[in-house]
DNA sequence: ACCTGAACACCGTTCAAGT
DNA sequence: ACCTGAACACCGTTCAAGT
């Protein structure tokens, strides 16, 4: 049911546009409303608070991670990272929203599912509980550093290889097979 | 030089009091100034912005991690985690400040130093680059979940064992010896 | 069902001026 | 050296009222 463009979807899409163009600090209810040619108070008919709206934005960021059904754990982790970095301040939005149990729990479930094909279920769950904080923490730090580097405040680093190495170390520690992931798409 | 209670130190201490009592959302320049019986504008003589002030707060949170010179890597990670969780919203403050290169780089250096006693220097550096995002990410998520649990929004989890397990998996993946850490101080 | 108008109780920051 | 007073340009949220 429901078209692809319900009221909430339009608002979330506008929020992502502001995020990309101006960053989280500029994503205010008033600015978002202006983007939609509406007053800020109108948004409260669709979302009960800014926090809930941000959870919906986080949801959409995470949902954009394209992962094949049978993807290797390392590929799931890389796809999640790409999705977090696809929008300015995306990692921060997802991280700050994740634990509130509002913004779905998809990253953990996808990682656990991928791990479960190589490990007993409880070890797969435990592994996901390690990979999720690593992915979110790394993406958060990487994104801040990338933005600082764009302002010339800091020397740029190759966060991508760094991230992949981390995932491989964790998988090795879990005793899971570390398949060489798809071709290196250095970013 | 400098007494233990310079102007900046007093302000940072007051900020930590507000953090503990009311959380990051209530840590405003106006409230902080009121705590010190001063107007908000006075704070700008000591700190050029709220962001820089928060970096100083993060610095102090991290510096409180008590680690012996010869501590095992796992103990350093646990001490950092304890320091982050010692103040309300502490992990978030440190995480959001860390990458700006303002809030010192101590966690990484301490972990790298501990790892360097068991691994070649470059592997120790690489290991620290994995442990730091894990520690910050895990503490951030754990702290949000703990606070949500206090509000009865979510079932409480034993984040402590979860964290230790993650550290052990990462150390195992690095090929570092995983010493059994000091007595379990389940919290 | 969806939005406006107006208000409430706030923000971070700047800067002349005081002591 | 350190602080006040006053202002500027904003915030998130509520709620009666409109269509």
From TrEMBL, chains A, B:
GO terms for molecular function: DNA-binding transcription factor activity; transcription cis-regulatory region binding. This is TetR/AcrR family transcriptional regulator. Keywords: DNA-binding, Transcription, Transcription regulation. PROSITE patterns: HTH_TETR_2. Residues 5-65 form the HTH tetR-type domain. The keyword Nucleus does not apply. InterPro entries: Homeodomain-like_sf (IPR009057), HTH-type_TetR-like_transc_reg (IPR050109), HTH_TetR (IPR001647), Tet_transcr_reg_TetR-rel_C_sf (IPR036271). The keyword Isomerase does not apply. Residues 28-47 bind DNA. It holds the Pfam family TetR_N. It comes from the Bacteria.
